[in-house]
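Quick illustration for those who missed Monday's session on complexes.
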Amino acid sequence: MLNQKMELELNKQINAEYWSAYFYLSMSAYLDKEGLQGCASWMRVQYQEEISHALKFFDYVINRGGEVKLQPIDAVPHEWNGIINVFEETLKHERKVTSLINNLMDVAIEEKDHAAKSFLQWYVDEQVEEESTVQTIIDQLKMVEGKGMGLFTIDKELGQRVFVDSTQV
Ligand code: OFO
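Prediction with hydroxy diiron-OXO moiety bound:
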């Protein structure tokens, strides 16, 4: 059984994951508008990934006998300042999510909730990968100054990404 504090914090994280999904879907629309269909598709996969993160929390709260209380999702931005800015904002956002996950882990430790600690470890590891993937994309985009043939190639490559539900593996 989840205690109240843990339940409240997990519910907040469900909302944060849905906000992330919404954020990346908005980026996908922006990138599509910019003519970067591969990047738009990559962001759409990122959106799907965030939905799977939210659902993993959702299922966990229910499995622990807690109550899921879905809250409204705050509005997300619609405009960015080009492709490099999009991925820089993505990295900034993922770093913020990492701190949210770390805070959740702190609560689990304070509350001596060993099951939640074990569950949250998956997200701790996932965030390392999230940040590193986005950093690599930023480095590549900067190498080609976010334009020309280089950007064309990166866009094609990012368009290859397919959604794999890593929460189920
Ligand atoms: Fe759910 O990891 Fe990104 O935000």
